[in-house]
Amino acid sequence: MIFRVKQFMERLAVRVTRPCINDMFWFRKIWRLKLVLICFALLTLFLFSKSGGDLNTSKNFFLSRSLIDDGTVKTTVNNTSRSLFLSTKPRTMVIILTYMRSGSSLTGDLIQQSPDVFYVYEPLYTLAKLRKTETHLTYFNKPDKENTAKRYDLNARELMESMLTCNSYDIDIHTLRQYHYGGSKTTKKYLECLKISQGVMGTASCLPLFQNACANSKVSVMKTIRMSVKSLKPLMTKFPTLKVVHLIRDPRGTLRSQQTVGEFKIKDAINATVKFCSRVIDDLKASTELYKVFPGRIKTVRYEDIAEAPIKATDEIYKFIGLNMTSSIRDYIWNITSAGHPDNCVICTTRNSSIATAYKWRQKLKFDVVTMIDNVCSTVYNKLGYLPLKNVNDMKNMKISVKKPMKFTP
Q1: Those residues with Cβ within 8 angstroms of residue 10's Cβ, 6 or more apart along the chain or in another chain
Q2: Does the residue 62 lie in any domain?
Q3: Measured on CA atoms in the order 363, 365, 369, 373, is the torsion positive or negative?
Q4: Are 180 and 294 found together in one domain?
Q5: Dihedral angle sign, alpha carbons of residues 371, 376, 382, 385
Q6: Does residue 61 fall inside a structural domain?
Q7: How far apart are CA 285 and CA 80, in angstroms?
Q8: Are residues 157 and 10 part of one domain?
Q9: Do 136 and 97 have their domain in common?
Q10: Are both 10 and 101 inside the same structural domain?
Q11: Is 20 left (phi over 0), alpha (psi -120 to 50) or beta?
Q12: Which of 24, 101, 203, 368 sits CB 3.0–4.6 Å from 257 for a disulfide?
């Protein structure tokens, strides 16, 4: 009897405690699930803010339509961009088209010293980078666009048009957040704003700084190494005030500098030389054809001419664009090219001697490499007036010129 009572009590205890145990189990399980969801939400917010801070590493998920189609964003963009765009008067537009390591940073800096200029440094950088992964272009309140190699020229022209006409409304959000805005006096404040204003809403709130700087200028200037001369024809046809500065450097200087910054390895020098000089030849041919259609709107400039006579060369470029050269601009040019400032930065424009910088390759390149470039790029030399070298002594003797005087049309 006692045994049966004991057995009954044990069964009763199990029945009573089992619901409690089950309740505790589910309670813990629910809290674990809540913690996971909270962590996921925090991670999402963190990544979203990061995507706004460094657009070049952001993902499409964080710039999806559901996040961008916000009424506040639309209102902000419409009010700050559309209204200013519509009120913008016809303006002079300039594209500095050149190649990597060809003196474009210096040339762009000289031009942006005019208070009439709105200057953007490498507007196509992000577009070209995203093309490699075929990342879609995302906008504030219009459909995404494909960004493939096949569509690159079209996307590039549309982006350049939006930049040149101060229509930031039609610029993709990735480009609006690229860090290259630090390379321009007129976009530095905008970049500073972006650094403290994360995400899509942050971009929209900073946009008036970009828009106003552009709309209040008389000349909009874009510097790019990521377009061909041929691809400019539709833009030049559409905008009669658009002018092109085609900037070219001695292939020996360009290729040596490209190799130094890691664009290609020395073992690939021949292929890199063939590719580069073929591109320059194509651009020169296209430039000649466009000059026939648009006379007076394309100017070919050698970087070495700027380096040797920076004030004179800049004055000529200013006249071509329609800018006024002032004494303060002349002083600035002298200070950054001839005044003995330090020269320890590969992308800086301040040089202790612009001539020494332009011809540094004569002291650094091996003569067999120079001979190879001379042979491969002979057509470029003939068109631009560069001279091949006979021996090492001639290469290192700075009194011997490696170019002849030329006037270009274009």
Answers
A1: none
A2: no
A3: negative
A4: yes
A5: negative
A6: no
A7: 41
A8: no
A9: yes
A10: no
A11: alpha
A12: 101
**233 lies in the same domain as 184:** yes
First to last CA, the chain: 117
Average pLDDT estimate for 26-36: 54
Distance from the Cα of residue 274 to its chain's centroid: 25
CATH number assigned to the domain comprising residue 259: 3.40.50.300
Question: Could you give the CA distance from residue 211 to residue 84 in angstroms, rounded to a whole number?
Answer: 7
* Shared-domain flag, residues 318 and 183: yes
When divided into structural domains, the chain yields a total of 2
8 A C-beta contact, residue 189 and residue 202: no
Domain identity same for 333 and 380:
yes
* Cα–Cα dist 303/311, whole Å: 13
Question: Any idea of the CA torsion for 227, 231, 233, 235, to the nearest 10 degrees?
Answer: -60
Q: What values do phi and psi take at 103, rounded to 5?
A: 85, 15
Asked, for residue 220, whether it belongs to a domain, the answer is yes
Which tokens sit at 298?
């394309």
Q: What are the backbone dihedrals phi and psi of residue 53, each rounded to the nearest 5 degrees, phi first?
A: -75, -35
Q: Collapse the DSSP code of 197 into the 3-class scheme (helix H, G, I; strand E, B; otherwise coil) and give the result.
A: coil
**Same domain, yes or no, for 18 and 118?**
no
- pLDDT tens-digit profile of 189-241? 999 999 999 889 999 999 999 999 999 999 999 999 999 999 999 999 999 99
Q: What angle do CA 324, 330, 331 make, to 5 degrees?
A: 140
Residue 17 lies in a domain: yes
- Residue 32's domain comprises 2-53
Hunting for tokens 């690939």 — which residue is that? 268
Q: What is the DSSP string of 106-130?
A: HHHHHHTTSTTEEEEE-TTHHHHHH
- List pLDDT tens digits, range 84-106: 444 445 589 999 999 999 999 99
